[in-house]
Amino acid sequence: MDAGLRRELAEKARAGARLSRADGVALYGSGDLAWLGGLAHEARTRRHGERGYFAAAADPAEPVAEVSYDGEDPGQTVDALLALRDRQDAGAGLLAVVPLAAGRVTGAAALKTFAVARLLLDNVPHVRAAWTAYGTQTAQLALQHGADDFAPAPGAADTLPAAELVELIQDAGLHPVERDAHYAAVREHAGPDPERRETPQPMRF
β-strands 149-151, 175-179: how paired? Predict the structure, then answer.
């Protein structure tokens, strides 16, 4: 990606302008994951501050939608996200999108998808990092790449104790907020302990 396009995309994203299909494909094709993740993190922070939402178990009442991707066809992934954006424009009433990989994907592909989802879906409030699908470590890292919700994938039977979820979100550098199925706050927790960890530790896939 040349510097001019990169600057143009960053300016559009920071201004809250709606991004096009071409913009989404260009973002997905960026080789600079740190830049893309940072741009998406700015977008999630504008919406949610330093809050990281969580639920201990999946709830069938949650108004969410899954988006499947394979990590190999950026255009297909962008089209799926834009189809969801159109549904939301038409009144779907979704509160979150849950990107889920179709098969094995690289960690970089997963994080790119979270970032592009946050930047394209200007009308969907939350992006979920489903730790049941990715593992807790990658899901933590997704919280720095556009995601703001740390919960199981829809229909997943797995659960974790609330105290463990709080600690995982704190370790990702955010303030944990327990929520209900409709994303109303149930309980807010303290943020990261600066004496324990001033910044999130590097995480590897």
Answer: unpaired
